[in-house]
Amino acid sequence: MGFFGTYAYEHGSWKTLSEGELPPLAEPFLWIDIHDSDITSVVYAPAGTGSGVAYLGLTPRTYFENPSASDPTDVLREAAGLAEWWALLNSGGDVPAKQAELLAFLAEDEDPNAFEWAESEDIDEIDDGEVFVEVKTRRFLAALDLPVPDGLS
After folding, report:
1. Does the N-terminal peptide bond of residue 28 adopt cis geometry, omega within 30 degrees of 0?
2. Is the dihedral of CA 137, 142, 145, 146 positive or negative?
3. Is-contact 105 139, C-beta < 8 A?
4. Does 130 have pLDDT greater than 80?
5. What is the value of pTM for the model shown?
6. Comparing C-alpha atoms, which of 37, 152, 56 is closest to residue 102?
7. Is pLDDT at 116 greater than 60 in this prediction?
8. What pLDDT, in 10s, does the model give residues 42-65?
9. pLDDT band, very low/low/confident/very high, at 2 (cuts 50, 70, 90)
10. CA 52, 16, 28, 49: dihedral to nearest 10 degrees?
11. What is the 3-state secondary structure (H, E, C) of the chain?
């Protein structure tokens, strides 16, 4: 059984929500929903040039092997939108550099059958952020210069 958690960042602090709950929030806000240590859904507003939805780990389309589980992803667009969101909280920050940094965290739609485990791969050498999306989520929040919510530390 993996990790599950839902959190909302608004007014400069985090609150823990019920699984999957997305109540009305005051902008600028960031909502994260971690599903089974595999998917973190990130909803942010204002969205700027992004759609307001990004994923870490796997996308729902990939995880559930179902193209209708989520809209197709555009990681370049979402990295730009998230960098603009970050700039609202960090005036004078280097938005292009932040966009490039955030891009490394975002999940793209993939063929779920394309993954192959290399027998020769040393499991001790695999980064925990590539296995447990909650680790990647903590790193993503650090890249956004946000504290980590209680329960995700």
Report:
1. yes
2. positive
3. yes
4. no
5. 0.88
6. 56
7. no
8. 999 999 999 999 999 999 999 888
9. confident
10. -10
11. CCCCEEEEEECCEEEEECCCCCCCCCCCEEEEEEECCCEEEEEEECCCCCCCEEEEECCHHHHCCCHHHCCCCCHHHHHHHHHHHHHHHCCCCCHHHHHHHHHCCECCCCCCCCCCCCCCCCHHHCCHHHHCHHHHHHHHHHHCCCCCCCCCC
Residue with tokens 């929030």: 25
Backbone angles phi and psi of 31, in degrees to 5: -120, 130
Q: What pLDDT is recorded for position 123?
A: 52
Distance CA 118, CA 120 (A): 5
